[in-house]
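FAQ: What does a multi-protein file look like?

Like this. Sequence, then tokens, then the next protein.
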Amino acid sequence: IALLREHKKNNPFDFPTTINAAFLYIRNIVKNHRNIDKNILDAYQKLYSLDFKLKTGRIDTEDFDIFLFSLLP
């Protein structure tokens, strides 16, 4: 999450790259551990929803920080 915030600070309009990096991170966790924790599944679903809402213009870019905070356990 800290890496996502740092990337967003340096590249404020580069949401696709940031979101895809988070998807890859979650996929690597699942691949390496061979199990799916409920927290990981919830984070993946929230990220997917955020990606869809950003691409369709249903969410403001200011809400991105709120989303990142919601990923914390």
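And here is the next protein:
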Amino acid sequence: MLYTSELCWIKSSFSGDGGNNCVEVAAAEGGRVSLRDSTRPSRIIPTTRIAFHALVQGVKSEGFAPVQD
């Protein structure tokens, strides 16, 4: 098991410097990808490269409906 301190987390340059309100991503063992919310860094979501690529493509193409509050 990898701990958060063992991963090199990165965030988008679009996140700005205003605080912790972004999704961070890190390369993990075995060609996997880990995601986390910067406001809850201890909660890590492991996924595959293929699933992460599909997520990124969906976001870029605006393929997701907005979340209703």
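Q: Is there any per-entry metadata?
A: Some entries carry free-text notes. For the entry above: Residues 4-60 form one domain.
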